[in-house]
Specification:
Helix content is 73%, strand content 0%. By secondary structure, the chain is mainly α. The chain has one domain. It is elongated.
């Protein structure tokens, strides 16, 4: 995997924690720690997106759910428009 150097600013407590992880041998380097954290977040967000899409697909498969959502959306729009 190719890498790209960047500069980030973190809270002192975060830096101290990550540096401690490196010193304890739980991370190869500060850069590796943040890279792993970013990859973990990317994976978590990707999984959440897939779960959301699956839930939407399941809801669309049930006409009663679709109609209930339409009624709720209309009601919310009325409230937002002050009606």
């Amino acid at each position: 995997m190719s890498t790209k150097p960047i500069t980030i600013t973190v809270d002192e407590t975060v830096h101290a924690y990550v540096q401690g992880q490196v010193e304890a041998g739980r991370a190869r380097s500060v850069s590796a720690y943040f890279n792993e954290a970013a990859l973990h977040r990317m994976d978590t967000e990707r999984q959440a997106d897939l779960a959301w899409r699956a839930a939407v697909d399941r809801a669309h498969a049930d006409p009663a759910v679709v109609e209930r959502a339409r009624r709720r959306a209309r009601k919310a729009q009325e409230i937002l428009n002050g009606r």
